[in-house]
Amino acid sequence: MPQSYSFRPDCVQLVLGANDSNLPYLEMLLASDISVRGTTISASEDVPLFIPFMKRLEKAAEERGGLKESEIFMEFQLLSEPAAADREDGTPVIVAAGRSIYPKSRAEKELFSVLRTSDVVFSVGPAGTGKTFVAVIWALSEVLSGRKGKLLLTRPVVEAGESLGFLPGDLKQKLGPYLNPLYDAAEYVLSPQQIRRMEENGTIEIAPLAYMRGRSVNNAVMILDEAQNATRAQMKMFLTRLGENSQAIVTGDPSQTDLPSRRESGLDEAVSILGGIKGVSVVRFSHSDTVRSRIVREIVRAYSESEGEER
After folding, report:
1. Does residue 94 fall inside a structural domain?
2. pLDDT confidence of residue 219
3. pLDDT for res 271
4. How many structural domains is the chain composed of?
5. 96, exposed or middle or buried, with CB in 10 Å at 0-12, 13-18, 19+?
């Protein structure tokens, strides 16, 4: 449901800036389309923080005059920090676009915790355990809060041998089918229009794994999904792109590699040799951590048991 707030006439321009220059920044922080009519500002959907945030901005404008983006962010952070704190029982919480996400399994709780403290996080285990979902929501929370400037999404394209030129369309269209799970997670807290706007301004970047060679990625959360399909060289290349104030999250299911049998998965090796490094965390999921549904949990369990019998 849309929400509206009416400013005092002498405050609305102090908050919005000259020619409404602060409006795009407000839209990014609140993850909502915002419109202005006279002294009334409206959000296109229900955003829990909207009214309290507008009240804080109005008060800040009364006290300090015209607001800059840094001052708007400070007020937003002061307002949202209590919601981002752990629950009283110590359970960690991720807050993105005004929505609080709680862990649904033992491994998810561990993942929530290490994301706060580690520069590199490996999240490995079977399908349906929430690995990709948590990674994307965490990355969005970091970007929308201003702690990071960009979310970079990448994935090995095994089926096309990393040669995407023969596929129709631009780079985004070529990679679209491979990145759908990442978009599904993002759409839990953002609308497709908001995601598209973040792509257009570079806040969300899509990059084929092979195209990242030679880069240094600063002030970003980098997510490598389906990492079991990355070779040793690709994994090393991805991890060494990590620049200043950046974090790498690597997700994958070692049991579902599509690499030719003669090629070793870079995920297996990375988890084996990097797990003991300070700043690197490995969270292992099992079929008991499956959160999609009861039937998915049973399917994963059955396949796991079958593979154990075959070995």
Report:
1. no
2. 95
3. 93
4. 2
5. buried
